[in-house]
Amino acid sequence: MLNSYEAVYHHGILQWIHDVPDGDNLRVIVTVLERENVRNVSEESIEQLLQRTKGIVRPAKSRDEIDKDIATMRAEWERGWE
Predict the structure, then answer these.
(1) How many Å apart are CA 19 and CA 60, to the nearest integer?
(2) Distance between CA atoms of 29 and 16, rounded to whole angstroms?
């Protein structure tokens, strides 16, 4: 079975961009894209990375908010079928 993974070849090493293939000593077929279409992963600035991930992590809840959420879930669980 063939699977595709995106990588950048840099100084003799494949740097995986997203998913990484499972296993070791894998047989691969490499297709080289035009140089202008290849983005160097290491060139991404920390500002760009933070901008891409903005909003992924929500602010932490307080202990009172967590207790309230648990109490609501418990009440729904114990309510039974109506």
Answers:
(1) 29
(2) 15
Task: Tell me the chain's radius of gyration from C-alpha atoms.
Answer: 23
- pTM (two decimals): 0.37
- Please state whether 16 falls in left (phi above 0), alpha (psi between -120 and 50) or beta: beta
Q: What is the pLDDT of residue 68?
A: 93
CA dihedral 2, 29, 24, 20 (to 10 degrees): -70
Residue boundaries of the structural domains of the chain = 7-79
Take residue 61 and report the two structure tokens written for it: 């809840």
Residues 65-77, mean pLDDT to the nearest whole number: 89
- Tokens representing 31 are 């297709």
Structure tokens at 50: 């933070």
Q: Could you report the per-residue pLDDT of 29-51, keeping only the tens digit for each?
A: 888 877 655 555 556 677 777 77
